[in-house]
Amino acid sequence: MHCKHKFLSSLLLIAALSAPVAMMANSGPQDNQGEQNKQDNNSKRYYDKGHKDYHTWDSNEDSAYKRYQSQHHEKRDFTQLNSKQQTAYWNWRHNNPDNK
After folding, report:
1. Cβ-proximal residues to 91 (8 Å cutoff; 6+ apart), any chain
2. What is the mean predicted confidence (pLDDT) over 3-17?
3. What is the pLDDT of residues 37-81, one digit of tens each?
4. What residues does 35 pair with on adjacent strands?
5. Considering the domain boundaries, does residue 98 fall inside one?
6. Which pLDDT belongs to residue 36?
7. Cβ-based neighbour number of residue 75 at 10 Å
8. Is the overall model pTM greater than 0.90, yes or no?
9. Are 87 and 49 in contact (CB under 8 A)?
10. In this structure, are residues 39 and 45 in contact, taking their beta carbons and an 8 Å threshold?
11. How many CA atoms lie within 13 A of 56 on its CB side?
């Protein structure tokens, strides 16, 4: 009987100690927008490592990328670019904000 209690106590202790670690492994880079992060099915979010921010790919971003394609003679879709080329786009994007 004593052995069962020791086993259950150990099991509960392991579960209690491993839960926070498991939750941290699931999380990725976060931004400060809270509930505003909910996106519709037509847009995708990309993380810009160099600037440590997110960009939502919507019709506005699509329009900006078309300007970039025109200026840089790029014919491929953004998703077909390698990470170095995507970083070049995000650098250009930060230097060419939307005219609002």
Report:
1. 50
2. 76
3. 444 456 899 999 999 999 999 999 999 999 999 999 999 999 999
4. none
5. yes
6. 45
7. 7
8. no
9. yes
10. yes
11. 13
Within a domain: 23: no
Q: So what's the pLDDT on residue 35? A: 41
| Distance between CA atoms of residues 8 and 42, nearest Å | 48
3-state secondary structure of 55: strand
Other CB atoms within a 10 A radius of the CB of residue 89 amount to 20
Question: What is the predicted pLDDT for the residue at 28?
Answer: 55
Cα–chain center distance at 56: 10
Q: Give yes or no for residue 6 having a pLDDT over 70.
A: yes
Instruction: Return d(Cα 73, Cα 33) in angstroms, integer.
Output: 34
Integer Rg of the chain from CA: 22
Number of structural domains, the chain?
1
- Residue-level pLDDT at 71: 94
Residues of the domain holding 64: 41-100
Instruction: Give CA–CA dist 22/26, Å, rounded.
Output: 7
